[in-house]
Fold each of these.
Amino acid sequence: MTQKAKEWSPKAKARLAGVFEALEGFTSAWGQVTVLGQLIVVGNAAATAANILKHETLFRLGFASSLFGVVFHLAWAFLFYQLFRPVNRSVSFCALLVILVGCAIQAVTALLYLAPLLVLTAGSSLGALTQQQLQALAYMFLKLNGLAMDTNLVFFGLWCVLTGYLIFRSTFLPRILGVLLVIDGFGWMTFMSPPLGHYLFPIIAVACGLAEFPLQLWLLIFGVNNERWKAQVEGIERSNSGQVDRAGVEPAKRVAMRLPLFI
Amino acid sequence: MKERNPMHPLKKAARIAGAIYLSLVLIAPFAMLYVPGKLIVRGNAAATADNILAHETMFRLSIFGDLIGHVIFICLAIALYRLLSSVNNTWALLMVSFVLVSAAVGFLNALNNIAAVILFRGGEFLTVFDKPQRDALAMLFVRLHSQGEFISEIFWGVWLFPFGLLVFRSGFLPRLLGVWLIIACFAWIALSITAQFFPYNYETAFAWLQPAFFAEMAIMLWLLIRGAKVAPVPAATSLGNSGAQAPQL
């Protein structure tokens, strides 16, 4: 069919992935870190509640921003899957599944983000609870939001490790980016124990800055090398051809299909 | 190509997707609109508690329907993937990804309703709260559930974009339906934003955006009744593709 001609080049996909990555980084960080950091008074439920009610629109914007971050996250994770499928299809698909779980957690986190506002503005339906109780509840949901975010980071870390491996094994991106991303991924995975993760956070932040930021810039500026990407696709096809014959699909047809099109 | 086959595989895939869609359309309104509308009294925890305790089976059925609905949603995505992956695999896989995340959110969101039932019933471990407090807490979880649906609405929207695009490009489904689905995508997102920032205009927005939402009804009926329009000659390539792909999913 005609879409073969319209299929985007790997370079364009890589650049688009860089754009979505930047959008996701900005929206998630703004919602989860900047806005919440501005409004939460650590250990003081009453002051936090007062802040949220005073800056309700900002709080809602923070929520919406972190929610749209999920959609951007899905988009770039998906483009990464496409880019790295020729390197190793199983690992790439595995990374996609890991990030889907991460995104689902991220989306549920958004509900916990919103819950404090619901508690504080509920009015008559929560009339049976005292002011202090409501504030404590609201604060608890904010803490839950933070913990859910930490859980999401564990999956993100695992994704970074897998993707770092794929970058390392690819021929179309600098290997050093892959190594850095693996280190960064192990850093995020320490959030399996949130206290440990928070303790190590300064180091992780440095690793993140050294790994994710250069990768993002590289993708935005250079994308990937089209020719090498195609060469890797063809290399995979050649090495797979024995398998294909056993499956009973004639090689000519396989070439016509280029990459196997299923998942 | 396959004369023995009574039905073209593409047409068959379309009919299957349509049938799954139909079952979703039958279940979802019960769980999402009818039961909450009947049992939940906004702003009145005590009345809601009475309603839900009096019709506990109905409420539990709606939770069950909610869960089944998400299972069907995943099946629908896979069925549509089979139908449309030959058009463009990238967009088809993206469509499935959005649906999977939406279903995960939906499953977890059902937990909020279950928490509400536990609180309304009030077991022994809850005796430290008095009844109005329990009802209030339960009401909070009911509200959280409906907020969770506003979050899901984003995904009910975004998955329609790749879906609509694939329909538009397919050549075997009407292009108009593709455009309509993409409009529905933006309508859902607009509705979700309205729910967040202008909650009092939600009903109005829903009424205005209603025509867009009928896109899904239209594509469902089209798939079920008309299936895919298969022209003998140009369909040969897509037939080859779908025939080769469908079993591999």
Amino acid sequence: MSISPIDLFLGNFVLIAIIGTIAISLYGIVAKPNLIKKIIALTIFTDTANVLAIIIGFRKPPSAPPVFIGNLARPPSLEELRSFATIAVDPLPQALVLTAIVIGMAVNLLIIFITLQVYRLYGTVDMRRVRELRG
Amino acid sequence: MKRILVAVAIVIIAVIASLAATAGGALGPLFDGVRSLAEFYLFNVFNAHNATLTAMSPEAVTSIVWDYRGLDTLFETVVFYMAIIGCVALYRGIELVRDGPEVGLSRIVKTVTKILIVVNIAIAASIALHGHLTPGGGFQAGAAMAVAPIIIIVVFSRFFLMKRGVTKEVALSLRSMGLLGIALVALIPLVAWAATGTVAYVMQNQVKIDSSFSFPAYIGNALVSGSLIWYNIFEFLAVTFGFTIVFLLLSVDEKTVKNALRGEEHEH
């Protein structure tokens, strides 16, 4: 079964949009002097990278989630497993993204705590002014 | 006005680029099929006929997270642990007082929240306990459960939560219990090795080529997928209370924190 041109176009559009979003968020991380804006750009960057990883594991229709559906009271037969393995999408990127999201959340919280501390000590989150103040 | 023009230009360029890529036949092969590694996981994840490679779970993602790539997840849990410890360390010397005014939002919001919190806890528990059967697991359940304390803090105030026993110390010890549970489940095979003399490996779930040790895949008629359900439950505990600590710290009022910071300066 071949993929339709519309689906192919949409797939390409999503990929190009992801690359564009990554470029814009990297610009935000580097160029914005405000720490909060840097954090927002960083979260956009990690989320976009996660979407890219999920898309790489995608497979053209007919596709299914990587969860075996059937009678769970007994182990499935080899035929059932073979048909499952031929339609399910790649579970590995999903597993990596899953942990990346939670770890990203924890690391973001740490960065936000540090930013909060910077604000309390310097009275600003603008990196240009924080650099001038020097403790 | 100029910004809108730039945005429109970017969208037009993206559409043209995608059209060109489609016409050139690009990226079509990307979706043709999955890699052989993925097929290996999908075929073996619930394959009782190949006992040395299976995880005995219908959920491929949880099986990869806690069985095939279990050590990766263990170290990612350590990263999570360190991040929370970093947050707690930044707040050292700041005492979270238990007693304070229970202000909060209006009665309507409070009533709706009371109902929603029960639903939230039920959903989080089902995500954790069914993590080896349906999409979900300890991480997702913990993230879903962590919504409960943050909503309670916003709607009822931090003191409501702390007066009922959810203090920083309690959350820290419950989170440590979760991490300890993960470590214990990972080390049970070694204990079994010492007790029975059959070779076993750290974080082993089902039988391996030279090891006959295995967690029970079924308890009665219920599929528990060996060690996966235990990892999910303990990770649920660790993630829930890890985030609870952070939300408690974030809800400390500015005056208390600034007083503590000023106190540090006086000492030096």
